[in-house]
Amino acid sequence: MSDLDRAIAQLRACRLIPEAQVRELCYKARELLIEEGNVVCVDAPVTICGDIHGQFHDLMELFRVGGDVPDTNYLFMGDFVDRGFYSLESFLLLLCLKVRYPDRITLIRGNHESRQITTVYGFYDECIRKYGSANVWRYCCEVFDYLALGALVLGASAELEPSGPSYNDTTQSTMSTTDDRELETEVLNSKGDVTMSTYRPRQGSSLDNGATSPTRDPAPLRTGAPGTGASSSGAGSYSSRTGAVLCVHGGLSPLIDTVDKIRLIDRKQEVPHEGAMCDLLWSDPDEIDGWGLSPRGAGFLFGADIVKQFNYKNDLSLIARAHQLVMEGYKEMFDGGIVTVWSAPNYCYRCGNVAAILELGEDTSSGGTVTRSNGDIGRSNGILTSATEKVPLRSPGRRYRVFEAAAQDTRGMPAKKPVADYFL
Amino acid sequence: MSAPQIPNLNTLRRGAGRGRLRGRGGGHEGPGSTSRGQKDRVVQGTDNDASVSRLSAVGLGYLEDSFARVLTPLGQETRRLPIINRGTYVRTTAIDKLVARFLGSTAESDSAWKQKKKQIISLGAGSDTRVFRLLQSDLTPNLVYHEIDFAVNNTAKIKAIRGTPILQRVLGHREDVTISDAGDALHSPIYHIHPIDLRTLAHQSESSANDEPVIRLQETVDTTLPTLILSECCLVYLSPDEAAGVVRYFTKTLFPPSGDTSETLGLVLYEPIRPDDAFGRTMVANLATRGIQLQTLHEYASLEAQRRRLRQQGFDAGQAAADVDFLWERWVNEDEKERVAGLEMLDEMEEWKLLAQHYCVAWGWREGCVRFDGWNDLEGQSSEG
């Protein structure tokens, strides 16, 4: 067993690793993350997760429900730390898994992965309390600066395979109708029972198998800028394909109209108070037209029209983001153009919400030749058509697994601290 | 998809799952098995929570309160989370506003009302600083203030008063102030601290009519003055019968309505509400693990229930209620909102709304011989938000 595997085992048991090992881990993680672009490309299948916030036992529950690393390919959309009592254990475990299985877990930055925010919301205090100095906090913050700002999920399947034997919708779907409609979304509880399904009409174009070709860009025009119209050379017509899925912690920015512009940001710094990088980590979708001021004091509110334009321009079929507590664990908005995924059940041990993770399946219809890499070289190109021949994109099939908080008795809550603050 | 090697922590759940979580071996017993004495100590301890929260909000600039530090136990100072600070701010300023209107100390107050001497009776006041803020202010010169709390809470406060010149100065001449031998009661021409377990007031008619502190309360309260009763997170800890009994003691026993000679009687409540949604259920369960039972919470679970309560308990001239989220949105002006929002980055907007929708301020009054209209134009929340 390597040191790293030992560290993983120890952290899984919610026991911390020595400071020297944290330093080494953070150093290795930085070396790995520095190679990643601002927007990491991730190939489906992938399981997308929202905020964790130091709720270690609930993170274990997430792995139980979603499958373990490296069996499941994970994408965490930031906010690993703050608020919960086990930010260190949670973040260090995720970081160990990243170093151990770099191609099976992707971590992007949330607004809480910041020096300023962690001093207010608990992570700094936790580091001092558990390690006796600010060293570990400093190491972790240096890692934060290298985390990618977003991810682009490529090759997701438009249609879901219905979940196995527990599928209980047979009374409503007769054999004749299932042929001309396809499963678009499915919601499962933590036991794997389907609690909701939605369908859409099947598209005839799925018969057009002649168009399938390797999606690797034969001659990238510019390295470092795949996944955008700029580097596309048009790989044929794909009326049945799904667009890419952009994953960011918060949302969009008025300064960013293409995914390419995200790639131009100099990200290796503390999260600024304003500007494109700040907006990506702080903004929220809202039922407004255009842009609005955010009540959070950072980032912006953006409406359905903004999402629609951005998705169209960038050949995206979906934006997945986290950042906002949603009581049901996930929330789709704007005709399915954007979804909020929230993965901290009973947030702050107080909110009573359930959590969710989002699974995107792999599109096997195109031969499954999409390559997987977190690096910037020789990677698949998610954008297959040029701007002049756009066809409507289909959104990927979405499977939400909803789960509750791990039982409170097993948390080992620190006895001194109140469970949660109320006004008394 | 599920990974079998990871233990399912939910299978370790005891009992009926969500909703009723009880601490196990953590020093607290379930509320059912706790003795009355233990339960009281827990409720008394909630005062500490409130004073620490107040000091946190003052330290960060949410509130101005020169008495917050001296009335918080030494070494207890901690920085509360931004949403708690904002909640403390909204609760305090909303009640301040109701109090100021009642006392007639605002610019728009009716002059006849303004000139009348007033009285405030604060239930479960504990370490509250409001009395000092009001007595110090030039805007409220004609005021008598009564506080009622457990003897143990009074002792701490009176000890702080004895040891702190800025508190003593507010009380005026030293020779006007008398303190009981036990150090749990204080009397002066403008300020009284009564060591009374409120439940004895609820059971007044039956037994403890000759309870010394209760007699003293009856002697010192001036029943000819317009009077405002305050309950900030206090009556909610009593049983529904006792809570109603305490209010009845004031509305019937001390201030019986007597046609055109009686004066205005007002009640301001600050309490949690909405125990039946996911947040509310979790709140009830979490507080239960601390041994705290909000006994009237289900009885007065909504704004409408709070208004009905005020109406039924005799505050028939007007009743209104609003949750803290509403009070932040509608009672705090835009400049002030901007100032407060600039004090700390409040990242957790959704959590703030959730929390703030689970606390309310309710106010109602009974008309007296001099017309009181100071609360007429305060905006309440009409429907359940």
UniProtKB/TrEMBL annotation, chain A:
Residues 223-237 have a biased composition (Low complexity). Keywords: Hydrolase, Manganese, Metal-binding. It comes from the Eukaryota. Residues 108-113 form the Serine/threonine specific protein phosphatases domain. Its EC number is 3.1.3.16. Gene3D superfamilies: 3.60.21.10. It catalyses: O-phospho-L-threonyl-[protein] + H2O = L-threonyl-[protein] + phosphate. Pfam families: Metallophos. Residues 162-237 are annotated as: Disordered. InterPro entries: Calcineurin-like_PHP, Metallo-depent_PP-like, PPA2-like, Ser/Thr-sp_prot-phosphatase. Residues 195-215 have a biased composition (Polar residues). SMART domains: PP2Ac (SM00156). It is an enzyme of class 3 (hydrolase). Belongs to the PPP phosphatase family. PANTHER family: SERINE/THREONINE-PROTEIN PHOSPHATASE PP2A-RELATED. This is Serine/threonine-protein phosphatase. The lineage of its organism: Eukaryota, Fungi, Dikarya, Ascomycota, Pezizomycotina.
From TrEMBL, chain B:
Residues 1-48 are annotated as: Disordered. Keywords: Methyltransferase, S-adenosyl-L-methionine, Transferase. Residues 15-25 have a biased composition (Basic residues). GO terms for biological process: methylation. It catalyses: [phosphatase 2A protein]-C-terminal L-leucine + S-adenosyl-L-methionine = [phosphatase 2A protein]-C-terminal L-leucine methyl ester + S-adenosyl-L-homocysteine. It holds the Pfam family LCM. Residues 1-11 have a biased composition (Polar residues). Its EC number is 2.1.1.233. Gene3D superfamilies: Vaccinia Virus protein VP39. GO terms for molecular function: methyltransferase activity. Belongs to the methyltransferase superfamily. LCMT family. Methylates the carboxyl group of the C-terminal leucine residue of protein phosphatase 2A catalytic subunits to form alpha-leucine ester residues. This is Leucine carboxyl methyltransferase 1. It comes from Aspergillus keveii.
